[in-house]
């Protein structure tokens, strides 16, 4: 049985077809009913036209309403109507699943806030339906890019002992009963009695494991869920998000920046080519800059500056920022957006951040005050990628752990890698939802993941 997408793509009308899906609208005129069916395969629905010759006319067709699940058989014919190529003259319509009267998705625009409260139904709307297809295409494009570039996909663990970012933003994983957990003599929770015999957490990043694999397979990547217990109620943060993390051995910061640019352009290009209808919809309904920005980003070379230069530009900009800029502070979203949107007007790779504000694993530059970090900033989103060359020198890495008060025993194997065949290597993490946000123009990250997890909400 063909999907609606396949039916609409046919060379010509003709022949009997079967359609299964959910009704977006049902309009009943005196002698005819017009049923718009959507099956998720594309934005467009297929119009079914039925009259009294249709099997099911009395008992089924005339009672159909928005939301009903149906199966129909009919002839695919050229549509006389505007904006649709074909329609189906129904010969038989069956009701597969009816809807109660309180079906919340009626033919009007609902706010995204409201739709979040009905995440079990919102994928049936045009916008969320299109988001799911763009997400899918982007994920496939990512896997294909790495496959073509000779990367091995690594499945990193979700449960972990180590804080890969050293930022202490982890969710604890435990099978102990919080009301009655075993205690040590000192009266604290005895984690040695827990499932894994040690305190465990949900991973914040697959990077450290990706480094292991890069030091045997040279070019690897992970693509999995990551978790951050940071209390950020913003339009760009989730507590659970998907991250894409390539890691490359025998690679330094410049090679990494080139990879990031090539990677983003390839994924954007593929989605632009294959999700034409959905992107046109986003451009029309959500943000009229979506298509032009996407093309601009695919065609123009990314800018490249150091953190030092970024600070200078921001300080000399004459802008009133909420967070004043001085050397040593982390760039805030308002700074990132000014740089990429206003000053450069294109994506920007900022490198060599102060050592004090970046993770322990980043390569310490010869100047001693900066590390080989790299953030990719894009218009509207700000940071979409964060990465770095890794510290591959054992002594420097140990100093960096100590500097950040991270216990060496948690990172013993990570240190081992610096003792056995260590090589310069580098990698980055792409926030997958931010990528989807960028491509669709959706303002809130909660609307580009089917089931968002944010502070105070893990429903569905
Ligand atoms: O910059 P981050 O924290 O870097 C890392 O986790 C490194 N271990 C990556 C690496 O080098 N392998 O996160 C990487 C990206 C960010 O640039 C951002 O796009 C996204 O992940 N990200 C989030 N996306 C949604 N919600 C959050 N709370 C996010 N935190 C980071
Ligand atoms: Mg970052």
Question: What can you tell me about this protein's structure?
Answer:
The chain has 460 residues and is an alpha+beta fold. It is 28% helix and 24% strand. An eight-stranded mixed beta sheet has the order 6-10-11-16-15-14-13-12. Helix 3 (126-148) crosses helix 6 (276-285). The longest helix has 23 residues, at 126-148. 38% of the residues are buried. It binds 4-amino-1,4-dioxobutan-2-aminium adenosine-5'-monophosphate (4AD) and magnesium ion (MG).
Q: Report the average pLDDT across residues.
A: 96
Radius of gyration: 26 Å
Structural class: alpha+beta
Question: How many beta-strand runs?
Answer: 16
Query: How would you spell out the order of helices and strands?
Result: HEEEEEHHEEEEHEEHHHEHHEEEHHEH
Counting H and I runs of at least 4 residues, what is the number of helices?
12
Helicity range? 25-40%
Largest sheet: 8 strands, mixed
Q: How would the blueprint of this fold be written?
A:
Layout: H1 4-8, E1 16-28, E2 32-38, E3 46-51, E4 69-78, E5 86-97, H2 112-116, H3 126-148, E6 152-153, E7 159-160, E8 172-173, E9 200-202, H4 207-217, E10 219-227, E11 240-249, H5 253-274, H6 276-285, H7 290-299, E12 303-306, H8 307-315, H9 333-343, E13 348-354, E14 370-378, E15 382-389, H10 394-403, H11 412-416, E16 425-431, H12 432-440
Parallel strand pairs: 3-5, 6-10, 12-13
Antiparallel strand pairs: 1-2, 1-4, 2-3, 4-5, 7-9, 8-9, 10-11, 11-16, 13-14, 14-15, 15-16
Helix pairs in contact: 3-5, 3-6, 3-12, 5-7
